[in-house]
């Protein structure tokens, strides 16, 4: 089993309910067990900023799936919950599931890059990750808690 870290988010519709259902769906997959889950955070949009705020979270899973099979499971879950990838980056979305880290692996190919290449810049990723894996060391990047301490996360707020 490998510990993988997954970022979750969305900003269209009933995001919290959709993310809850997506986590349950992932936990039900053979070879995937959700072992930790962060709080929800309200976060400002990244990139194209004229859109609603996002709701973001993170989960840790123990998995026997190889990295590309886990990525495929995340993409299938997105589609099952209404995500349509239309080519627009950083636009509004019903759901977004990102494989942020896969054990100690460093992968950089046309389908998958882990640790996620922009993870150290993104409070909306690091805040929820710190809830569940503050001491996790992302290979070639650093410890989650240290990365979070170096960025401004004041615009991200925990949701009740």
UniProtKB/TrEMBL annotation:
Family: Belongs to the HPPK family.
The name this protein goes by in its record: 2-amino-4-hydroxy-6-hydroxymethyldihydropteridine pyrophosphokinase
PROSITE patterns in the cross-refs: HPPK (PS00794)
SUPFAM superfamilies in the cross-refs: 6-hydroxymethyl-7,8-dihydropterin pyrophosphokinase, HPPK
InterPro entries for the chain: Hppk (IPR000550), Hppk_sf (IPR035907)
Keywords: ATP-binding, Folate biosynthesis, Kinase, Nucleotide-binding, Transferase
Protein's organism: Luteibacter rhizovicinus DSM 16549
E.C. no: 2.7.6.3
One Pfam family named in its UniProt record: HPPK
Enzyme class per UniProt: transferase
Annotated GO biological process: folic acid biosynthetic process; tetrahydrofolate biosynthetic process
